[in-house]
Write a structure and sequence with these properties.
Layout (H helix, E strand, L loop, with lengths): L4 E3 H8 L3 H9 L6 E3 L2 E5 H15 L4 H9 L8 H53 L1
Antiparallel strand pairs: 1-3, 2-3
């Protein structure tokens, strides 16, 4: 196998994904491996796209957003459209993540307060039980 292409097994090993994941991304037109009968051969382009997909997923981008961003690569404008669109989607995702973090911080603080109250109640009940004995 040349360095230019990788089999599905090599892709799975190199990027810690399952064959099912790669076939799914292919069905969603995120990857376009070369087909040789039943074999799929993934090019450097596919590998670069998979890295971007994995990064985008880690940031919470939708598969549709990722597909749109990847499709902009071939526009011939030195990736300006792709980078500008990625910047916009990333800004929206960052705002969502910051909102979620604020909600999570508030929930954590409230849970801590409840646990502090619970600890005080348990200690009080324990003291009352000890005094009654």
């Amino acid at each position: 196998m040349s360095d230019d292409v990788m089999t599905i097994r090599q892709m799975c090993d190199a990027y810690q994904v399952t064959p099912r994941t790669l076939r799914f991304y292919e069905s969603k037109e995120l990857l376009s491996p070369i087909r040789q009968g039943q074999r799929r051969l993934f090019t450097r382009r596919d590998r670069a796209r998979l890295k971007l997909i994995q990064r985008g997923k880690r940031f919470g981008f939708s598969l549709e957003d990722l597909r749109k961003l990847l499709d902009l690569y071939d526009r011939g404008d030195q990736q300006h459209s792709q980078i500008a669109a990625a910047y916009e989607v990333a800004g929206e995702r960052l705002a969502d993540m910051e909102r979620q973090r604020a909600e999570l911080d508030a929930a954590i603080a409230e849970l801590r307060e409840q646990m502090t109250w619970g600890a005080r109640m348990l200690a009080s009940l324990e003291e009352n039980r000890d005094a009654a004995e």
